[in-house]
Specification:
Shape: elongated
Helix content: under 10%
Number of helices: 1
Structural class: mainly beta
Number of domains: 1
Order of helices and strands: EEEHEEE
Radius of gyration: 17 Å
Strand content: 25-35%
Length: about 110
């Protein structure tokens, strides 16, 4: 199953750890499967501003959002996955144990 998503670092610094994007799919029967994306958050940079401008020191602005990062994943659904609609959730996880580290900031996202 192809899955295309666009991400943006809207913070003030890059992520220094090798945190990975992960997808959790829940099928119509409630079975869950976690897929680790090849995308690493480490590559997503925040925006830039000219700090040499004297106006920057007078009133430091928030950094603008960084460039969009396009993530294209191919998820291989298990044979026992129920046909029909499924719930897709995103998280940022430790690449070794896939433990969720923090939720993505997504407008309209649900928690839990």
């Amino acid at each position: 199953m192809p899955l295309l998503s666009l991400w943006q670092n809207v913070g003030s610094a890059p992520c220094y750890r090798p945190i990975r994007l992960a997808w959790r799919l829940t099928d119509a029967a409630g079975r869950r499967r976690v897929f680790l994306s090849r995308a690493s958050v480490r590559a997503w940079m925040p925006g830039e501003t000219d700090v040499r401008n004297p106006a920057f020191l007078e009133n430091p602005p928030d950094l603008p959002p960084g460039p969009e990062a396009k993530v294209e994943d191919q998820l291989r659904l298990p044979a026992d996955f129920a046909p029909g609609r499924c719930l897709i959730e995103a998280a940022f996880v430790d690449p070794v144990d896939r433990r969720p580290l923090f939720p993505p900031a997504i407008r309209g996202a649900r928690s839990g």
